[in-house]
Amino acid sequence: MTTWTLLDNAHQALRTAIAGLGPDSWQLATPCDQWTVTQVLQHAAGDQLGYAGTLGVGTGPAYNPFAPSGEPVEDPAAFTEQALAASAAAFAAVEPGAQDVPKPLPLPPMSAEDVVAAAALDAAVHAWDIAVATGQPSPLTPELSQALLPIAHATADPLRGFAYADALAGQESDDAAAQLLRHLGRDPQWKP
């Protein structure tokens, strides 16, 4: 746990999605084009390790999170927990209101609140990817989705092409989760 509720909630969403996986889940397709559940897990864990390393906890991932191998992960829960614990420890030392907080993203200077929200966005959206790929309920609650919308709007455009796909057109009936997903290039109605 950190002093950052948004990040704690996003980390819990990822833990819950991983805990809900069965032995036949790992090679299933996901909303992340051409990535399996295993690759999304490797990417999500690597991103959290990247935040931790940038903030001075650990050295970051030992692999490129944007080129996950897809090789089986021996203990997925422990693999996930190691990354989330490193991220939580790193962000626990980040003071609210701090400016120009280090981050592993090619973005302009950001406040503590924005860097925390970016890390939370990554964890929560990949939790959704894994959950929908494996028939689990969406972890994107209305509150979590609404809290993540501002950072998605602030960061997605400069990261399109390597971190996010092109935004999808919104629908009048979209709730906060659907708005968030469409802005990040994901179809809220995606099915395996």
In short:
It holds the Pfam family MDMPI_N. Residues 8-131 form the Mycothiol-dependent maleylpyruvate isomerase metal-binding domain. The chain has 6 helices and no strands.
Would you kindly provide a written description of the structure presented here, covering whatever features stand out?
There is one protein chain. This protein is an all-alpha fold. It has one domain: Four Helix Bundle (Hemerythrin (Met), subunit A), CATH 1.20.120. 51% of the residues lie in helices and 0% in strands. The protein starts with a helix and ends in a 9-residue tail after the last helix. It contains six helices and no strands.
- Structural Rg: 15 Å
Please trace the helix and strand order, writing H or E for each element: HHHHHH
CATH fold-level assignment? Four Helix Bundle (Hemerythrin (Met), subunit A)
Contiguous helical run count? 6
CATH architecture grouping: Up-down Bundle
CATH class: Mainly Alpha
- Average pLDDT rating: 95
For the termini, the CA-CA separation is 33 Å
Percent of residues in beta strands? under 5%
- Poorly predicted runs: none
Query: Could you say which structural class the secondary elements and strand pairing correspond to?
Result: mainly alpha
The number of domains is 1
Work out the helicity level: 40-55%
Q: What is the 3D shape?
A: globular
Please report the total strand number as a whole number: 0
Main sheet specs: none
Pfam families: MDMPI_N (PF11716)
InterPro entries: CHP03086 (IPR017520), DinB/YfiT-like (IPR034660), Maleyloyr_isom (IPR017517), MDMPI_metal-binding (IPR024344)
Protein name: TIGR03086 family metal-binding protein
Domain Mycothiol-dependent maleylpyruvate isomerase metal-binding: 8-131
